Amino acid sequence: MKVMHFGRFIAGAICFGLAVPMLILTWVLPAGQVMFMSNGENKPWIPVIGLGVLGIVLLTSAGIGRQPAETSAPHAEGVVDPQKAALNKRLETIALGCYLVLMGGFALVPRTTISAGFWSIAAGLVFLGLNAARYFNHMKMSGFTTFLGILSVIGGVAQLAGLRVIEGAFFLIVLGAALLLKPWFDKRQLFGKAEES
Questions:
Q1: 112-156 pLDDT, tens digit each
Q2: Do residues 27 and 92 both lie within one domain?
Q3: Which of 40, 76, 177, 184 is 20 to 30 A off residue 112, Cα-Cα?
Q4: pLDDT band at 1 (very low <50, low <70, confident <90, very high)
């Protein structure tokens, strides 16, 4: 038996409820009446899309619940494996070192020589590489650094393509996809504390 998450349902209904009237006002009112300034240009569709996507994601995930506490199996705490903990610490130290070298290079090398998009892509690949190393060593990945890595790579590609204004849209798309795929990730137990077995 599934449980509905009323908080998600209410938040999704509010977001979607705000997006629909904003969309109608954008179509009905003359051009320039509905204002949302981004980089000196009026783009009234940005909040409509953002609220609409967030509302839809929250509404669809509201019904994807866990079993009630009285019928669910007791949750056992993960057992810390000392070998995995030591390996994870080494991997995190290597990734942090690579990231600091990248940030030093970004500060040192002029932006006319190497575009900022390449640095963003490289930083994202460091985060994704850390989680790939965890995965191939049969350790749980970090959802936070995976999320940051994906955002960084997409943002870097957008910067190289000259699409600086839509980086916020990519953030919402990746966040929405993470919410939709969360039950799949939870079922396979891909994310969590890397040192737990």
A1: 888 878 888 898 899 899 989 988 888 888 877 888 888 888 888
A2: no
A3: 40
A4: very low
Buried b vs exposed e over 80-99: b needs ≥16 C-beta within 10 Å? ebeebeebbeebbeebeebe
Both 45 and 86 in one domain: the answer is no
Do 110 and 33 lie in one domain? The reply is: no
Between 13 and 167, the higher pLDDT residue: 13
Q: Number of folded domains in the chain?
A: 2
List, as one string, the DSSP characters of 20-64. Answer: HHHHHHHHHSPTTSS--EETTEE-THHHHHHHHHHHHHHHHHHS-
Report residue 126: phi and psi, to 5°.
Answer: -65, -45
Are 40 and 127 found together in one domain? Answer: no
Assess whether 90 and 153 both reside in one domain. Answer: yes
pTM of the predicted model as reported, rounded to 2 decimal places:
0.54
- Convert the pLDDT of each residue in 18-52 to its tens digit: 777 777 777 777 777 777 777 777 777 777 777 77
- Same domain for 110 and 153, yes or no, is yes
Q: Are residues 91 and 154 in the same domain?
A: yes
